[in-house]
Structures
1.
Amino acid sequence: KYYTVNVDGQLNIYSNELRFNKKRDNTADITKIVEIFQMYKPHIVLSCENKKCMNYAIHSNFLTCEAFDESLHDIIGYVNIKPFLMYFECVDIGKYWVQSDYIYNTTRIMSRNNSNMAPIETPFINFELFDSNKLKNRILTIVTFT
């Protein structure tokens, strides 16, 4: 079955409440709108592109919504975003892209110059335990001796 989905959405960052405002030509109910929203696997990315930050970024796991009583919602639908985990954080260190994965508890070091090269996998490296110079030295040491 095909649906026409025409909505505006706003996220209240204080309550984690996601509000969908349906437009007139909608053929999907709020339950279907939420299902479609989740199907696209939305997530949050926060990044710092400043060279001092070494292109640092964190990525959340996919956002999911809590179930709600559709009978309470007609034109406007409110759903709450469930608490989410951080998925990974990454940083650019010279020729290498370093990704620490919180879900699989591992760190991958990938070559930016040779995308065909398999990543180097190491036990999880917590970026918070290092300043930028120590992190860079740690990564380059791993690359040199692997």
2.
Amino acid sequence: MKIKYRFLLLILASTALFGYAQKITVSDEISVRNNFAYDIFPNLGDRIVFYHDKGMEHNFEVFDQNLRFLQSVDVSFEKKGVFPIGVIGANDKIHFYYSYKDTGYVHIKVRTFDSNMRNIDTTTLSIRQRKSFDSKPKFYFSEDKSKVLLLGFEGASANLMMIDNMTKDVIYDDVITIAGYDIKDDFHKLTVGNNGSLFMLCNKANFWRNSDVQNLTLLDFSIPKMSQIYSIKAEDVIVSDILLKYDNLNQRIALGGFVGDDDQSRSVGYFAVSYQANQLPDVLELPIVKFDDQWMKGETGKKIGRAKEFDNYQVRELVSRRDGGVLLTTETVKEYAKRLNQAAGDNFNSQIIGRGNDIDFYYEDIVIFANEADGKPQWDKLLFKKQFSQNDDAIYSSHFLFKTGGRLKFLYNDEIKNANTVSEYVLDPLGNSERKSVLSTEYQNLKLRFRDAIQTGPKSIIVPSEKNWKINMVKIEYD
């Protein structure tokens, strides 16, 4: 990595307007041109580690807490070209889960590195015949990163391997078959609790593919060989978007999402509810909150009678409260493709003579719904935002939800351009909000990807800035 310049900016907001200050630290540029993917692991003791997945090569760059580069480490494995199942940072260590094939067998292993990327342990989790095991399982972990789940599929069955990430003991490794289910095709979402609880959301009737019959189910695999099945019902409406979360503080299962009629891009109501995880009823009746005319007028600006549906909103996150209540955050997302000028006189064969399409991305207002644990609404809040970009996959759009004690901060780019102001909405537990400016990127050559930010503490986050295949890590610390 070429060391260019490192600068420390102290951005003080006017005390008359905001009364706050942020310390902004920016790393040197990190090239990711040859990467398949990258990740950032903060809080490894006094180190921050940047991981490069280059396919056949795996490189880690180590930084101190002030984002000063310390060293670069290339990690070698038993065979070249191992498959990285998942990498997480926990307890001041990097835990690298991977698989490789050798003489008809699939080896599943995990390596543990200290904060300076010294290999301190290698554990074999499983060795199986290649024909009977998915060598590229899905990777999940609990909120406190103490439990890791590897999910593979064998025909219509699921292979569940739960691992204690601290001791590297395999808690269980079972193949689960449920009559009437093709778990691979029916699988939709999954959540893992800090205590090892495992819940899976399935769409057994394939209603996501516009089936006329909706049969959404929740599978409890906390004791894999004694799995429980719970039906989820939403009377007279179709669940069009849904999130699932395990509330570790209250030991509850939270569900939230939108419901509609036929057009799944238009919502007529929502739900946000939580259930005691060890006392789930056989049928989970979703308490639907319908959007009435007065509410729609306030949120859309349309006249009463003309706004019957909530358009182009997507669910973003479920936030669990200490009292078991649930906050559902949502955001407006619109995408339009525009065909560029074609050769005159020929409206056919556009793939041959056309110049392709421009894709416009609009990421706009945020709406938060706050409900009690039983699904009864308490308040909702509309936060105005308008972001437009073109042909960039919207990587600089959307927002980051920063959780700071009793407050939520929604950080986002005001505009998607080089010289930009970063703003935030600060939301209190009663739904009162305040909008503030955080920093300006003018003259700093930064383009911040807030949707990929990482919270490193109650008052700090790290945001990647990406331009021309180069990354800067940007650390924002609140006073």
3.
Amino acid sequence: MPSSTLGDPITRHIADSGESLQAYPNIRAAAQMLGVSASTLSRRADRTAERRGERDRVLPPAEVLRLASVFRRRSVNDIAQALLDHARATAPDEVTRVEEDIEGFFEAHTVAEQREELRRLARRMLPPSMCEQIDFLLDQEGGELPDIIQGYAPLPEA
């Protein structure tokens, strides 16, 4: 094994866990889903990959979805569908686990969770008076939304 991969902090090996990585896309397949080059993904310092064999590195579905929100080349929903399609094509027995990973990603990225993260960051980085303003604004209820909007509705003539 090359010495450059021995200390690679962004790659982990799951040889003893018994977990199959067959349904996970490798870096090239994930890059194609995301609409970026494979070298762009392989050079990212914040990417999390898992080893599948000697040389192959695969990305968990949650990591591919996270990268989709970073690159913004394609809809995160489209990427989720591409991950499911990949799992169905490569490891039909693992589709349920990939679905669970995708659902877990979406559950962890709700608006409420993002608001709480904003509050935590504000408390850590801003003076208390600004934190109070942010808390006040985040606690405000949104404006009234229309009951339904369908197509073009002409304004009444005056």
4.
Amino acid sequence: MEIAFTHKDKLRIIISIVVLVVGLLIIGVAFTPPFNPPQCEGNLTTDNSNCIIGANIGAGLVWLLGMAIAIVGSIIVAASLVFALANAKTRKPGMALLITAIVVGATVWACWYIFIGAPSIQKSRYQAEIRTRRANFVQYKGIPNIHSVTRKSDALTVKPATGNTNSVAIDLHNCSPGSAKVSYATGTTHFVFSGITKDKNLEGFNDSECILYIGKETVDQNWDGSLPVKCTSWPISNTLSENQLEFPVTNAGIQFSDILGNCQDLRTGVAPDL
């Protein structure tokens, strides 16, 4: 089969493909480190240019811009091919019509999968996983005691794994019920994770939060095992990097900062001093 496009048709197709590629590139780079730096951890503030605090609205706007350009580009590609094939010189019009249908169908399917299908599948899998984790939630009445918790949680990681601990990381997405602890020169900080539950004040994708309790044992005091500090985290995100909270550890203990704003001492009803 011989199909001859005019020079204008070829130019129109090339330009439309370039527009589509530009849109896809913008989508691809919207959430790379230069455009979407990690959340500030521990005691870092907005003075640190390598991290941010709060939602990155700019990255979302860049992503939406890329989507808009890609959608327009894909429509122009399909329209250009249809127009070019309709006006092309061919000895087999039926074959040209079939090719047109295949190209248009493939373009529409690809756009649907990239912009709707794949994100929907990811969201469904994430929400199914969160529902499973919610089913394992442990509700404590009053102040829990470390001696009554036998299960170990893998939501907390000390760094480095061996030797003196320099920092501790809490994985909100992996907020499995159970206990964990971090030891240092002057004592030990104990954690009890209730697990993941739905935040009644939130709706939509990120409507879950991790509930944990904290108690501090010092070497010069008798500790009864109670964990009076209850913390509710901010919404759990479907982005893994946004669920990692890391705090430095010194000889005096864990240097909590941002998370304390979401914590309350159940004995006094005020923010704790950890």
